[in-house]
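Onboarding guide, step 5: your first structure request.
Type a short instruction followed by the sequence, for example:

Predict the 3D structure of this protein.
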Amino acid sequence: MLTNTKSPFLSPKHTQIDEVVALSLKTCINRFRERPLLYFTEADIQTYLHKDLMSGNTPKITMRDGRISLIHREYPTNFRYKKANLISGYPDGKLEDTSLSNKCIRSRGHFDLVVLNPEFIQAMLDKHQKINLSMEQIINKSVYRAIDRQSDPAGKHSEEILYAIEIKYLHMFNCKTKSMLDKILMDNEKLSIALWRSNGFLKPINIVFCSSESPTTIRTYMSQGKVLYPLTEVEHKIKRGILNIYVEAYFDDNDKKNTDKKKGALTAFCQDPQQWAIDLCKKLNIDLHS
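The system replies with structure tokens like these:
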């Protein structure tokens, strides 16, 4: 899948947001590596990361004197997709099928966590003037309003989201199941569609946390960007531009905590990484493979 290499315009607000995201991810990752027993569920990790992004950062990640937040969970995608197609992946020739106007696909998906583009919010406030009319667009629950924005030649429908983050949590009860690899593959495909739909504007991140010794297949996929799918022996590759981060911290049968970066407990992969991904991994002190 080919995408443009356009980077978001680095306004002061965007630069501040990049700093907040980097610091918050670092805090969240380090906390997990130090205290993996804090987390029972994927929702726990999402909650902590959301709190890290919000805490002490109100001027940087809100608008209208703190009344509108840029950080949101379960934010709708501006495209449609069939879940059944996410594991095998959408070929380039089928990407147009993900258009919001394609009513053959009934529903949209959601991102685990997003950072909205402040320029999108300001544009909606300027255009609609009234708070409620503006928020109907910004909250993005109505697919019909999203289609209207998409058809507006003066709008920037492809630049509504700065960061889209997907999170998966492997633990002692699910790490050996095939479905977890499926879910990670699906998250990467969803982010790849989002990147294509944004013409390269979006910063997509897929983070996998693991508090148990993970299967070789998932470790290989997250660190090398490719894996042979167990049932079919078909190779799956992480498509270009998607930053994948793998964080592992677990206790073995002797109650020894394993977090050794040299043994692959903290890695990142991105095919053809853009500068934002390179800079972020440097701030996180993670070796980036590509």
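Each response can be followed by summary notes, for example: Confidence is low (pLDDT under 50) at residues 1-9.
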